[in-house]
Structure formats: structure tokens, C-alpha cells
Batch of 2 targets.
Target 1
Amino acid sequence: MSDVNTMRAISQDDLGGPEVLKEVQVERPTPGPNEVLVRVRAAGVNPTDWKHRATGGFLGRPPFVLGWDVSGEVTETGIGVAAFKPGDEVFGMLPYPVGHGSHAEYVTVRARALVPKPASVDHAQAGALPLVSLTAWQALTEHAGLQPGQRVLVHAAAGGVGHVAVQIAKALGAYVIGTASAGKHDFLREIGVDEAIDYRSTDFTEAVRDVDVVLDTLGGETSVRSLAVLRPGGVVVSILPVGSEDFHEEAERLGVRAVRMLVDADRSGMEAVADLVEQGKLRATIAGTFPLADAAKAHELGDTGRTTGKLVLLVD
Ligand SMILES: NC(=O)c1ccc[n+]([C@@H]2O[C@H](COP(=O)([O-])OP(=O)(O)OC[C@H]3O[C@@H](n4cnc5c(N)ncnc54)[C@H](OP(=O)(O)O)[C@@H]3O)[C@@H](O)[C@H]2O)c1
């Protein structure tokens, strides 16, 4: 049990498989200037969580508490916070990578990273959406400048990022082509995909052409091969931020654009995401919910790379 000074959190002392994750009691943080303390109700689990668990990534050596998605209630405000008061329900993404720590009962967050949670969705929905939706929104609007009527190819369209990218691209008026294994094609059509490609039986470079925007969620040779399906002036936005220089060199040779990006937490993106949710144009498909104490089970499922939609931790 936590008292007023402590909280439950999922931490790790070693890098490794899901078994390194354990529930611990730690000191409850206090919000600094321009920060709020949020009582976490739900928090998505993303590939970046299981990658950091295994490798340390941007966070270096453990101990650390993972988690960048958050939905919950403001319980305390730091000096200077005018936008929120205790009791407000909020959701958003913690600044990446330094703001991590939502896989816990409480987390401090820069107030400008948060927006009010739409009343029409529960915390599980709101906690599932921020990181993947901001990624897709920033990729499609800021980096690709997607216009109505354009053709978009979304790789791994059934995944966390892919399934929200499909919905956002449709909301922006695009024609959407998505890749997934054949068993997931009904799901792709339900979320709005116009044309589904089974990547296991079909080479997408032979099945698709004249694309304006590719959202590359796979990286590696997929980034470079995706350039070949673009129209002149088209763009591949890859969300695997590190990779070979061939990507840029080949893009230049073909007269197209190649962009690699990392999602960045911001209020304007979250306002756009909240608007789409309120208009009924964006919903997360929940692959599974887990109590905080079972975070390792969510990581195990995530590690398979086969989930449809989002994994979410619920914090009682
Ligand atoms: N740069 C950034 O800021 C940023 C932000 C978010 C995510 N990411 C990265 O983007 C990647 C995707 O994230 P995510 O949350 O979408 O992952 P995810 O939810 O774990 O993706 C799982 C999905 O990938 C599909 N998939 C696997 N291999 C595939 C292939 N070769 N072709 C088509 N679909 C395939 C699976 O479908 P099947 O079962 O049909 O194979 C499954 O539905 C991760 O590496 C993540 O770290 C980067």
C-alpha cells in the first residue's frame, strides 16, 4: 500500500526480458514549476518501452520507470500552472525521451504536454492514444504535408502506430493502402483502409505505385525500398530514426524526399488528436489491458511484434 509520500511503480534494476520488471514502492514526485502531478489511470505500453527495458536506449543504466503515455487526473499543480487544477482529467505524452515514468501511480508532467481528456472516452482509450497518435499526426501533417485526395501507404497498418495513422490519414481525406498479414485484412478495412496488402505473399513494391506519402514503421531495407513506390516529389517518413545513409542518397537519385523522425510531445498535436477523438474519427483498438502489477505480461505480448492495436496498463 502507498501512503501520501509514496507510490507504486514498475521499475527495473537490470536490462533484460520482461522478467526484470518489478513493482516497487518509491517516493511520490512533487511537481516543479510549470509541471502538474497526475494520478495515472491508464498508460499505453509501446515498443519504445520494451526496447528501453532490454537495452537502456536513451535512458542508460537502470533503475528507471518506463512509460510515456498517460491518462489520469491532475492532483497537484506546480508554480505557474494556469491551464489545469486538481481534479481535471487530462491525457498526453511525456516529453520524449527524458519525461518517462508513467508506468506508476503518479507522474509529474510538463503541463504544456497535456490536454483535457475528451469526456466521450475512458482512460484506457485516452491512455492508449498519445504516443502513437502524435507520431502519426506529426509524420503525416508536419513532415509529409498530407493533402486531401493523396495516396498514402502505411506499413504495419494493424500495429499501434499504423492503426491510428490509417484513421488520421482517412480523416485528412487520403486514399489509404495498408500492409498486414492476411488474417488482419478485415480489421484494416474496419478502420478505413482502402486497399490491403498481405506483406507475406506480396512484394509491396510490385503491388503499389504513384504514392504521395509512405509511413514507414519498419525501417531497415523497407525504408529504402519504399522510395520506389513514390510519385516524383513524394515522401517516405520513417519512424525508425536511425539507419543507413542509402535512404537519403537513393531519395536524391529518385527525386523524392526521405525523412526520419522522432515523435515530440506537444500540446498542438495533442489538441488535434483530442479533436479527432471528439469527432469520432480516431479510436484506439485495445489489444489487451493489464493491471500495473502485470506490466511484464504486457511487455511479453509486445515483444511478439504481432499485436493488433495497443497494449494498455490500468492503474487502480
Ligand atoms: N520515431 C518515433 O518517434 C516512433 C514512434 C512510435 C513508434 N516507433 C517505432 O515504430 C515501430 C512500430 O511501432 P508500433 O507501435 O506500431 O509497433 P507494434 O504495434 O508492436 O507493431 C505490431 C504490428 O506490426 C505488424 N508487422 C510486423 N512485421 C510486419 C511487416 N513486415 N509488414 C507489415 N506489418 C508488420 C504486425 O502485424 P502482423 O501480425 O500482420 O505481422 C503487428 O500488427 C516500432 O519499432 C517503434 O519503436 C517510432
Target 2
Amino acid sequence: MRAFSYHRPDSVDAALRGVAGQSGTTTEAAVKFVAGGTNLLDLMKADVMRPERLVDISRLGLDRIEETADGGLRLGALARNADTAHDERVQARYPMLSKAILAGASAQLRNMATNGGNLLQRTRCYYFYDTGTPCNKREPGTGCGALTGVNRIHAILGASDRCIAVHPSDMCVALAALEAVVRVSGPRGERTIPFADFHRLPGDTPHIDSNLAADELITAIDLPAEGFADHSTYLKVRDRASYAFALVSVAAALEMDGQTVRTARLALGGVAHKPWRDPAAEAELAGRPASLESFRKAARVLLRDARGQSHNAFKIGLAERAIVRALAEAAGVEHP
Ligand SMILES: Cc1cc2nc3c(=O)[nH]c(=O)nc-3n(C[C@H](O)[C@H](O)[C@H](O)COP(=O)(O)OP(=O)(O)OC[C@H]3O[C@@H](n4cnc5c(N)ncnc54)[C@H](O)[C@@H]3O)c2cc1C
């Protein structure tokens, strides 16, 4: 592990002064915030990330979960994943989110991990972690070890010829389906980022995971009033029953009119560089009967451009079945 300096401010302003003057995006920054440290410290120990300075934000008091004026909830960036998942309001009004968080990591990790850190956790691509192999995400321009290597856990949607890594978060998949909003503070004031615009596809710049600037701090995540509490679920398919990242996951949320779907939200994890939403697949469900047949149709629309690599083509069929099962569970339709 390389030497770095450490600073622990006690206010948002002081934390922002700690990263002031940095340009570009947060993934490129030499000075980094550290929250629970469950991802960043691992990456530093593996020499994958090499910040020169850490600004510890754990004492900023951004750990509350509060009501918003429009009937939603504001999740503090420093609220722990465990406290968020077990919050009674989250459980009652956003059960899909609670389920998604609890599907991730382990109890010990969720007790340390924060909501802001969860959004910015980095990919679990083996080649990203292995500094002896090329990786455009870790070292731009070196190549992609996964493209010709072992790519069983990699992307089937939205990948580029530079990077086929996937975003590993469970929580973010539910936040994408809920259309949460990320609240950010920086030297240019406060701003909000719709969840769909927070993470990026790899394109030519796979080293940049999100649109957060290097001098900005996530302060909270706002959940809209609509939580789809009556008809939603999070389904995670993985190699082990616990303590494993998703091969494919699905957040499914429906508004129902009797046995007809009024509106649908579908977000997939484990398949792309960001939580994957597809308006065409959601439109396919609107106004249709809640049946396995229409769920299958929507799944095929969502996966129309899916492309497998040498070891992960199985994910396409897996994703189709997972979407159908999640929609059936959300709608209360019997599924074989
Ligand atoms: C063994 C293991 C298994 C795991 N399994 C899963 C899993 O199955 N599903 C899953 O979803 N996750 C899983 N995780 C990941 C875990 O959820 C993340 O490590 C955690 O959410 C990161 O939060 P943190 O507060 O510890 O972030 P940190 O490690 O402190 O920070 C992560 C990144 O976020 C930045 N950051 C943190 N907070 C802010 C902020 N407020 N503003 C701006 N930047 C910020 C940091 O600079 C850093 O770049 C696993 C982790 C481990 C170690």
C-alpha cells in the first residue's frame, strides 16, 4: 500500500475545501473521500487505486433518513446500508429497495457501507483488480483483459470494445427503478442528478464511472413519493445463495389496474456498466394483462440488443427468465 495523507473534517464545507481545485470526474481524482472504506481501502491495498490524500467524511452528520416535502424520503449519503434497509419507512414504502440492499454483501459490510459509497463502488471485473493484466478502466489505453479472457460475469448490454465490466451494486438497481435523485454539493453550489444520468456507459472512457465531478460530494439520495410498495420486488441471481455479486438482478415495479399493468419499471443489474433501464420494454408492458406471456414479450424487447462474450452468453437466457419471474412476483401472478 502506498503512503497517503489523511484528513477528517467535521463539516461539509471543510470536506469540500479538502477536494477543492480538482478537475475532471471523481474516478480520476487524486484526493478522494472515504466513507465506510469497504471498497476504496480494498482497492488501495490491491494498488488498483492510488489516492494521494483521503478526506474522511464519516463525521459530517449526513447520516439521517428524513421525509421530503413531496412525500418521499431523503437518504443521507452517510447513512449505513444496514440502517437504510432496516428503516421502517423504507421497508414499508420502498420494500424493493430494502430487499435489494439486503441482497448485497454481508451483514458486517452493510453495517459499514454507506449509501453514497454504494453508488460509487467500482466494478468487480477480475482484470480491473489484477494489476498484472491490461485494463482500460484501471489504466486507460492498456487494453481489456476481459474481452479475450474469462468473461463469465461481464456485460451483455451497453458494452464497448474498450470495456465489458458491469456495475456491481444491488442498491443502485432498485434506485434506478425508483427514479431516485442524487443530491450533490460542490464549489459551484448544490445540484441534483437524476439516477439515470449518474452512472455512465463505458464507451471510449471506461475509466470514468459516473458524472460526479472530482470536487463534488454526494450529500443525499432522494426517493420520490411513489415507492411501488404493493407490486414490486428485487430478484438477484448469483452463484452462491449469499455473499456473491449478481450474475443478473432485476428490480421490477408495477402500478396495477386489477389484472392489467398500468405502468411498469424494470431495472437490471449485473448486465451492464450501469443499472440498465429500457423505456421500450416498460412501454411494452403498459396497458397489457399481467401474464407470463406479456412478461416474456417485454423481456425479449429489453434484451433485443444483448450480446454475449465467449463465456457469458448464458446470461441472456438467464436475464429473460429472471425478468419474467420478477414481474410475476411483483404482479402476484403464479409462476412455475
Ligand atoms: C466482500 C464484499 C462483498 C460485497 N458484495 C456486494 C454485493 O453483493 N452487492 C453490492 O451491491 N455491494 C457489495 N459490496 C460492495 C459494498 O456495498 C460497497 O463496498 C459499499 O457500498 C461501499 O460503501 P463505502 O461507504 O464503504 O464506500 P467507500 O469504500 O468509503 O467509498 C467508495 C467510493 O465512493 C466514494 N464516496 C463515498 N462516499 C461519497 C460521498 N458521499 N460523496 C462522494 N464520493 C463518495 C469514495 O471516494 C470511493 O471512491 C461488497 C463489498 C465487499 C468488500
